[in-house]
Amino acid sequence: MEWVGHCFEHVTIPLTTVFTGTFHITANQAAWIGSAFSLCYAIGCLLYGPFSDMYGRKIFLAGSISALAIVSFIIGFIDHFSGLVMLRVLEGLIAAAFAPISFVYAAEMFPPEKRLTAVGFILMVSFINFS
Prior knowledge:
Layout: H1 3-10, H2 16-23, H3 27-55, H4 57-75, H5 81-95, H6 98-109, H7 112-130
Helix pairs in contact: 1-3, 1-7, 2-3, 3-4, 3-5, 3-6, 4-5, 4-6, 6-7
């Protein structure tokens, strides 16, 4: 599940020229589309661990998958730069649920002798995403 955040984080990099032309902005301004996601993703990673401890991991995983699908769909229809940045902020906060929760969830679901393999598979999928 950690690959979700990495996928959404890097998807806008090759689209910089499209954004500059569509929104009539500079490349520096277009960089905020990715930076807004990354900053909020980092902040969200710090928040979801304690929240999932209090309210349950399944709720956050299921809710964030649903919310991420909705926000990502809406982003496809945005025609204002500021709206896109704001939705990328929201998308970063939502996508951040996967990394911290998936590792803890794997540790809780697998017996001690299989935990390393489970976490290894999570990391493998994350690294494959960068290829």
